[in-house]
Amino acid sequence: MAKNVDRIKKNKIKDKTKSTWLTFFYVGENEGVFSEDARRVFIINLFATVGVLFTLPLGLSSLYGGKTVLGVVLIFFAFLYSMNHVYLRYTHNHSVSGSFVIYPLYILMVYLIYTGGVHGTGHVWIYCLPAVALFLHGLKRGLIELGVFTLVLVIVMFFMDSHFVESAYHPTLKSRILFSFLVIIFLSAIYEYSMSRSNQELKEASAKLKLVAYTDALTELLNRRGMMQRLEDTTYTSYHLLLADVDFFKRINDEYGHDVGDYALAKLGKIIQQPLPKGGLASRWGGDEFLVAVCDCTQLDAFNLAESIRQQVEEYEFEYLDQKFRMTLSFGVATMNESTSLRETITLADNRLYSAKRAGRNQTRWR
Questions:
Q1: b/e map of 183-211 (b: 16 or more CB within 10 Å)?
Q2: Which of 125, 109, 99, 106 is nearest to 44 (CA)?
C-alpha cells in the first residue's frame, strides 16, 4: 500500500514537472492542443533556449580565455535569445520571433567564420543553419536566404584579407567547408520538402475526414453532428429553427424503391438550401427530417421561409427515370434566445412539427 502511495506521489511530481516545462516552451499556450501555431511556438522556443545554452557558456569561456570581443558577442546573443523568449511569451508572434532567431544566427555565423572562433573552430557551427532556416522560413525563402549566406561565406573565406581568417583556415579546408555546407543545405531541403508535402497531405486528409464527419453524403448538407457543432459555436444569441419532416416518406420507398427515395432526399436538400438567406444553415437531421437555422430575421420571417419551402416542395414534380411523384413537408418552427436553450428549442420545434402532422400534414406550426 505504501509503495503504491509513493508511486502515485512520484507520478504526480513527474507530471507536474513535465507540465511546467511544456508550459515554459509553449509560453502559456495549451500544450494539449498541438496546432500548427503551437508547434511553431514550441520549436522556436527550443531554438532560442538551445541558443542561450550554447552561447552563454561559450561566451563566458571565451572571456575567461582572454578572447574579450568574442565573449562579449556570444553573451550578447545569449541575451538576445533570452529576450526573444520574453517577446514570444507576451505576443505569441512566432513569425517575428522566428526572425529574431535566424537573422542573429546568420550574423553570428558570419562573425565566427570571419574571426575563426576559438582555436579556428568557428566554422563547425554553420551546419546548424540550414535546418533552422528552412523550418522557420519555409523551403523557398529559406533557400534564398541560405544562398545569400553562402555567397557571404565565399566572400569572407576567399576574398577578405584578414589575418584571423588566414590563421584559422587552410586553403583546402575552405573549399571543403563550402562543399560540405552545400551538401547539408541539399539534404535539409530534401527533408523539408518531404515534410511539407507530408504535412500538406495530412491537412488535406484531415479536411476530408472533417467533411465526412460533419456532412451528409447523400444530400451534401450538414449532418446532425455538423449542425449541432455550428449551432453551439455560433455567436448569435437568437436564431430560428425550422424542423421539417417528409410526409409519408415510407410510402415512396415502398412503392418506388430506396434508390428513388435517395434521389428524393437529395433533391429535397437542394430545394431547401436554395432559398436560405445569408448565414442560414441547412442539415439532414436524420432519415427524412431536415433542420434549418436562420438568424437576423423575425419569427414571422422564419415562418414565411418555412411556408415558402413547403409550397415549393408541394408544387415540385419529382422525376426519377420513368417514375413521377409528388411530396409534401410538415414544419415546426421555434426560436432560440437567451431564455430558451438550444436543446429546448429543438424539442419545441419537434413538438410543433408533430402537431402539424397530427393536424393533417403539409403545414407549418410556429405557435
A1: ebbeebbeebeeeeeeeeeeeeeeeeeee
A2: 99
| Grid cell digits, residue 243 | 424542423
pTM: 0.59
Domains of the chain: 34-210 (no CATH), 224-365 (3.30.70.270)
- Cα gap 239→256, rounded to integer Å: 37
- C-alpha cell read off for 267: 433533391
Instruction: Give Cα 88 to chain centroid, integer Å.
Output: 19
CB atoms within 10 A of CB 15: 10
pLDDT digits (tens, 9 = 90+) for 50-69: 888 888 998 898 888 888 88
Euclidean distance between CA atoms 221 and 293, whole angstroms: 12
CA dist 330 and 145 (Å) reads 65
DSSP state letter for 295: -
Q: What is the pLDDT of residues 168-220, one digit of tens each?
A: 556 688 888 899 999 999 999 999 999 889 888 988 888 888 888 899 999 99
Which residue shows C-alpha cell 582572454?
A: 66
